[in-house]
Design a protein that fits this description.
Length: 75
């Protein structure tokens, strides 16, 4: 007699959420790159994209600055 055995394993479904780390220059306090209050999401780091839009005050980098990528908007 032939027997067929079916094994149903559990299936794990997971949702992966990718959070894009990004911060935008606001320059509301000063021109200091290393002042977190001048950024919408804090000072950029090695894993953060930095966006510099057209604003009245632009960053002045006098200390070592790091970011994953930088976008400077035209204007």
């Amino acid at each position: 007699m032939k027997k067929t055995i079916t094994i149903l394993g559990s299936v794990l479904i997971s949702t992966l959420t990718i959070i894009k780390a990004q911060t935008t220059w606001t320059g509301t306090v000063s021109t200091a790159w290393d002042n977190a209050l001048n950024w919408s999401g804090g000072i950029p780091g090695a894993g953060t994209d930095a966006v510099i839009p057209v604003v009245g005050t632009y960053p002045n980098i006098v200390v070592a600055g790091t970011c994953k990528s930088m976008s400077v908007n035209a204007g």
